[in-house]
Amino acid sequence: RADYDLTGQLVWPGAVLMNTYLSEHPETVKGHSLIELGSGIGITGILCSRFCKEVVLTDHNDEVLEIIKKNIEMQSCSGNADAVLTAEKLEWGNHDHLSNIIEKHPVGFDLILGADI
């Protein structure tokens, strides 16, 4: 089945701006745990994993989540990430998805990140 909704499969201008800012100001996220909403392919969250202690990337699209997981795997192999980096399904307004994330991360997150959402 082809997914013709490419929304989560592109790097949007807001993500480029966010990544530039975070690269220039890593202290913004350093040592924090964060959840990224609408992660798409995961580029922003993966960048944050270089500075954070934990990063959870989320998206509602199953095909995009598979891309995120492959990107996390490649990042893990590179040895550049300091953070625990995971991906979770999150469709906004879906109580089950939210409950699953809360169950896995009961202390919550220091920061909520979103670019082009």
UniProtKB/TrEMBL annotation:
GO MF terms, alphabetically ordered: protein methyltransferase activity
SUPFAM superfamilies listed in its UniProt record: S-adenosyl-L-methionine-dependent methyltransferases
Span of the signal peptide: none
Entry GO terms, CC: nucleus
Name assigned to this protein: Methyltransferase small domain-containing protein
